[in-house]
Structures are given as structure tokens and as C-alpha cells.
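Recall that a protein's primary structure is simply its ordered list of amino acids. Everything else, from secondary elements to tertiary packing, is in principle encoded there. The following example makes that idea concrete.
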Amino acid sequence: MQNFETPEKISLVLGSGGARGLTHIGVIQYLVAHGYEIDEVVGCSIGALVGAAYACNRVQQLGDWMKTLTKAQVFKLMDFTNPRYGLLKGERVLTILQDVFEDVLIEDLPFKYTAVATDLEREEEVLFMDGSIYSAIRASIAIPGVFKGVLQGNRFLVDGGVLNPLPLNHVSKRGNTVIAVNLDGFPTKEEGFVAKLNPVGLLQESFYAMRRRLSTLSLAYYQPDYTITIPHDAAGVWDFHRSKELIDLGYALAEKALQV
């Protein structure tokens, strides 16, 4: 294992993956505790949310709030709507988050921040590098069929992870050391488990396999300096009640990957 020498500047790429993204908080806590300077954050979905909290100097508060959530409280955050547009509006979560950090203009942040969403009709990525940080988060976390998509002009925006679960291609500060947090690591499940799944489980695992391939291709092509990999089965999409465990896992895996 190579030792990681503290770089002058870090570009941090935070991938998508639901509650597994709480590990992003632990990774950031490790970097801050060891004196690394995060100069750029590129995130999609949960990565865009956690990256925004850090950019607003409130990632510790976000972690503390997440740790208070029980299964019942997670359910209460779900603002159900007309299923034609998605099961959830996604507004209640953002309203609660305003107690953690306020909406600000991205261009006023202390470093470069990019949130990635997907224009589903045009099948292309949409970058948020200015304007309301809450608007950026809302578009980037809009999981199709779960959260209501966002209409922006003539665009219909959904989760950035649809096309790009680990958006390494949007790092702009090429002189920086790049650290990627990949939430689509290979699961630790026993061999042969797929044969035991029902049709819904098979569909789900097929989708996960596709995501893993997209992330693997992105890592191979853009080759970040360091990758922190979170096993795909570390948590389910909605396991936010396991926040403490997942934050601690992110810290531990960052320490393992970036040994100083």
C-alpha cells in the first residue's frame, strides 16, 4: 500500500448510491481531520447533497442530523405524490435540510462545486455550476420513478447517476489530486446468490450490475489518483437509519485507501 502524501489541492468526486452515500460524510471527515484541502467537489445524487453540505461548512451537522434518524423518521420524510410523476415530491427532505444548511448560490461557495443531473429526453448530462444549490441538489437526487423529476425550461431532469454514477469526467481542476468515492463496489454476497432471487430481485441486480460497469469504465478511463470503494451491499438505498455505521465505514475505508 502506497503512502499518501498530502497534496496542495484535492478534487473530490462523490458518486451516487442512496444511503451508501452517507459514507461520503465519513470520507470527508477523515480528509478534514488529516489536513487535506478539498479544492473542488463534483457529485451526483447523494454525492451532490453531501458535497453541498461540505461546501456550506455544514457536513458535520448533516452527519449529526442523519444519525438521529430512525426507520419511522425516514418514512415521515417521504412526501408521496401522484405516482404518474414519481412516488415522492422530494420537497420535504429539502425543507428539513434547511435547518442544517441554507440555500446559497453555487458561485458564492468557497471552492468549485459541480452537481450532475440527467436530461432524460436528450439523454445527456446537465451540470449545475451556478445558481441555487438547493435546485442543483433537487435535480441531482431525482431518482426516476421515486422522486418527481424536475422541469427546467424545456428539460426534464432526473438523477445524475442514471448516466454517470461516478462523474470523474467533470473534474475541471486538472492540476489537483483526484480522489473518487465509488459507491458501486462489488458486493460481498456469496457466490450463486443470484440464482435464488425472484424476478424483482433479478431486475434489481441487473440494474446494479449495469451501474457497476459504468463506474468501472469511468474509473478505468479517467484514472483518479485514489479510489475509495464502498461495497454495493454495504446498505440499501433507504437505509438512512444506519447513518452512524455508514459514516464510520466511510472514515475507515478512507483511512485504508489513503494511509498516511
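The longest helix spans residues 199-222. The radius of gyration is 17 Å.
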